[in-house]
Amino acid sequence: MSHPQRTTTTITTAASADTLPNPSTASASGDVPMPNKPLHELFRVMSRYQILKTAKSLIVGEACIRHHLNEYRPLERIDILVLTDASPMTLRNILRFDGSKYFSESGALGCAIKMTLPSFLPIICTIETIAPRQLERKTEDYRLQICCQAFRGVHQLQYVPEEGLPFLGLPSIILMEVLLPPEPTVSINASLVWKLAQRLDPNSEWEDWQRNALEKKLTRLVDLGGREERAREQWCEALRLHNDELADGVEDQPADRVEKGPIYLSPNLLFSNLMSWPSWCVGFCVMTLATVLLYFLFFRKTPAPRNTHNTWTEWAFVIVSGLYL
Fold it and tell me: Checking DSSP bridges between strand 123-130 and strand 112-115, what pairing results, if any?
């Protein structure tokens, strides 16, 4: 069986532990939906180890998206982000040698491990970590800003209710999909963002940096809509961008294309950019003063008067010299 390609997962705002109330997919006990059983088993194993139960963890990626869209399909992949100083390889090895025998080598790149439960197909689990010290300093890096907010409202694993799961919050997932696509060369999945936005609370509010970042992507979202063309106003309403216009100084980012065509420069614009009006005035005064000084230094003589023709020639030479200066 082929497994989905690994993507890099990133985080946004705080997530709370909650369950998926869907009786039609509940297990025999009636309290855990069958598609979520692997998640519960994974966190049950993680909670056995001190290094994991005292850390904060979040479910991100496809499993989190399906949770917010209420899509109850069997999981093929689980992505976990852990706030800890331990390395991803350390956490992976803890699971790999757990006594449950659920985990084995995956053969995938990175810190991935394969989980196999009875009556379930094998599931690829990836673990990424972020050190607490990385979130202590101010940064303009979207990933770190998102992670900082995400873990702010999350409890350590030992305090998460046994029936609950620490999914990443819906606003966080939207920010992640818009600002941090899985790969640099992958365009935003506008269709997915639209579906997620439909589930936002009508009273949702963004922080200033989040709203400005989303506003910069509006043109891109409109252009990437494909067959489902949606106007800019529709995106603003769906994403709860309540401002009537873009924030001052914010410029939309266009879609992934380059506008081709000749570029024309106006002569007036060129000269106005080279020197401002006050600069021209100062330059003229300096040039005049230099001309007078040159005249008195080199051409002013006391002997008998000379003819007018030679005088005008000397003055012309002085003026031309001043212009070159």
Answer: antiparallel
Reading the block at residue 224, the tokens are 């990437």
CA angle, corner 115, sides to 114 and 118, nearest 5? 140
118-127, 133-142, 258-267, 282-291, range with greatest mean pLDDT: 118-127
Q: Where are the domains of the chain?
A: 17-180, 187-261, 272-324
DSSP character at residue 228: S
Residue 49: C-alpha distances to residues 44, 45, 78, 249, 324 (Å): 10, 8, 19, 50, 81
**Residue 50: Cβ-neighbour burial (10 angstroms; 0-12, 13-18, 19+):** exposed
Contact 81, 103 (CB under 8 A): no
Give alpha helix (H) positions in the chain: 37-46, 50-53, 61-68, 88-96, 142-152, 170-179, 190-197, 208-216, 218-223, 232-238, 267-274, 277-294, 308-324
- Tally the residues of the chain: 325
Query: Which class does domain 17-180 fall in?
Result: alpha beta
Q: Per-residue pLDDT tens for 99-124?
A: 889 999 887 666 789 999 998 999 99
